[in-house]
Amino acid sequence: MKIDAIIPSEKIKSLGVSSISNEPENNLYKMISSEIQHVSQQYRVAEEQALTLTSGDLDNIHQVMSAINKAKLSFELVTQVRNKLLEGYQEIMKMQV
User: Fold this and answer.
1) Is the pLDDT reported for residue 23 higher than 90?
2) pTM to 2 decimals?
3) How many domains does the chain have?
4) Which of 1, 31, 46, 97 can bridge 71 by disulfide, Cβ–Cβ 3.0-4.6 Å?
């Protein structure tokens, strides 16, 4: 089973210092929203496969379980990234200027 990276290495290499400094909030927003959409799509695929399995059109339960686990792990990863971002924001807000 292939495990996809959150951000492909080609995308990281293509981001230069100038592109990051121009619109940092938009880059972060776009990256997070695309990952959330990706997780949502994985859940839809898993749901479709589960429905296909229950209707009897699909016999491979391993494929369905793999899709469900992949969607679950992706969701947990996005949740942990969100938690770390919130912790970082809270730490910045605690700083005295």
Assistant:
1) no
2) 0.63
3) 1
4) 46
Domain that holds residue 82: 21-94
Nearest to 53 by CA among 65, 40, 69: 65
What tokens appear for 51 in the block? 């429905």
Average pLDDT over residues 46-64: 89
Give the Cα separation of 37 and 81 in Å (integer): 15
As given in the structure block, the two tokens for residue 24 are: 């940092």
Tell me whether residue 80 is exposed, middle or buried, using C-beta atoms within 10 angstroms of its C-beta: 0 to 12, 13 to 18, 19 or more: exposed
* Residue 74 burial (CB count, 10 A): 20
Q: Is residue 68 predicted with pLDDT exceeding 70?
A: yes
What pLDDT does residue 15 have?
Answer: 56
